[in-house]
Structure formats: C-alpha cells, structure tokens
Amino acid sequence: MTSTTLRHKTLIIVLLVIILGLLVNLWFGFIASSPSMGMRKIKTLEPLLIEGPLEDDNVYALPPGTLLFLDTGFAEGHVRYLAYFYHKGAFAHEEVPADLEHGPTLGAPTWLYNVDLDNPDAPIPRPPMTRDDIVQAVRAGQVTRQDLTAILRSLPK
Q1: In the chain, which end has fewer C-beta atoms inside a 10 angstrom radius, N or C?
Q2: Residue 44, domain member (yes or no)
Q3: Is 122 domain-assigned?
Q4: Under a CB-based contact definition with an 8 Å cutoff, are residues 54 and 38 in contact?
C-alpha cells in the first residue's frame, strides 16, 4: 500500500467520523431536547371543551384526534398534558415573564372538560372558586354583598 492510498483512507475515515459526530450532535440538539421527549403520548377520541375567560360566551373545543403528551399527575386527581399547535403568521400576544420561584416551565394551565354528548347545551363546568378568586373579585368591585353572602352560604361547613 502506498503512502498516498494510506493518506486517502485516513482522510476518508476522519471525514466519516466528523460527519457521524455532526449527525449525533443534530440528534441530541434537535430531537432529543424536545420537552415532550420520553412522555407518554395519547390521542383524544372525543372533543374536549377548553376553558375560556369567564366573561367569554364562546365555546372552544379540542378536536378528536389531538395528540397530547402526559406531563404529570397531581394528588388532587387532575393530570397536566402538553399539546403542540402550528400557526402560520403572527397573532396578538404578550410575553410572560419566567416565574423564578416555581421554575421557568410552570404556568397556570387551562382546564379541559369532557363534552356532555347527551346534552350539548350543558354549561361548561368550572373549577371551584378559590379564596384568591373571591378576594380578587371583591377588590375589583365585581361582587356585591349579596353575592358574597350567597357564596359563603354555598361553601361546605
């Protein structure tokens, strides 16, 4: 074997190692770093109602066949899922600052509810009001004394 052939083979091996290293780097950089990597995937078989603002009368639904990623379950009995959506173009939005106390990925998720197929006119169920919700409503002047009395009477004793 001549020295030129040996140099060519060595050069080809070095180039192949570099290309393989780049491919591995791309794999870990793009694919393996996805937030949903390793999460269980589920596909919805029925529509799910998406909670909207309380003053909004519109009903939003997650269609059947939507792919959700199981994020975590909570002792209270609810589960958090991740969903990915595509959108072309820009839309109105605002940046949300990172919550350093709870970590950069923790937010206030929107609730999903099962659709009552037997009664399509059924109202969207809402999670129970918390103490903070009541305090905010009172401070905003959205609750009268009569409303507050009715809320307090409806609470379990």
Answers
A1: C
A2: yes
A3: no
A4: no
